[in-house]
Amino acid sequence: MNIVCLDLEGVLVPEIWIAFAEAVGIPELKKTTRDEPDYDKLMKFRLGILKEHGLGLKEIQETIAGIDPIPGAKEFLDELRSLTQVIIISDTFEQFAKPLMKKLGWPTIFCNTLEVGENGEITGFQMRVENSKFTTVKALQSIGYETIASGDSYNDLGMIKASKAGFLFKSTDKIKADHPELAAYETYEELLSAIKEVL
Question: Which of 29, 24, 103, 73 is nearest to 188 (CA)?
Fold first, then answer.
């Protein structure tokens, strides 16, 4: 029995923090897991900048409301879900993901949650489990699934390498150069084709 595990940002929807950085004019917030492999360090850096500028959940959610899935993402996901089970495994947060899941037709997502004060300030974050993508893939395998995984960033490499088949998708030149053993694709057609071959 197969299950496909997909990253969210950069794979199905644009990077939320990049869109927000552009909306508020704070270039430092453009840093993502493509640039910083340590997610805990990255989030603490982001929360520090938000606090410094007096920005909270409301402002980020306003940006997210204007984000649409990458062209072709919903159709890709719909076709994939007609063939096999699919779970989106993301380091994003429930408070960010919900409007995007609606636009993608409500696929299953495993993600994290933000700690938000009454004034809307993001005071912290709770990770579902440590190294969540790798851990989730191993848990799925422990209950009888064979996993196929795809993502674009450093934090996707664990689940990609632990799966029976794993693919980079819309990744960076550096990640692709560092991991020549991983097949890398740029279009949904290519990725769908590669997944179908191993189903």
Answer: 73
Domain 2-16+67-198 has CATH 3.90.110.10: no
Residue 7 falls in the annotated catalytic set: yes
Instruction: Give residue-wise pLDDT tens across range 93-146.
Output: 999 999 999 999 999 999 999 999 999 999 999 999 989 999 999 999 999 999
β-pairing verdict for 122-126 and 108-116: antiparallel
Q: Name the packing angle between helices 73-83 and 188-198 (round to 10°).
A: 10
Contacts of 175 (CB under 8 A, 6+ apart): 34, 152, 153, 154, 157, 168
Burial class (CB in 10 A: 0-12, 13-18, 19+), 149: buried
Condensed to tens digits (0 to 9), the pLDDT of residues 11-39 reads: 999 999 999 999 999 999 999 988 888 88
Active-site entry in 7, 15, 152, 156: 7
Catalytic residue among 9, 15, 152, 156: 9
* Token couple for 30: 């453009």
Provide the residue ranges of all domains of the chain, joining segments of one domain with +: 2-16+67-198
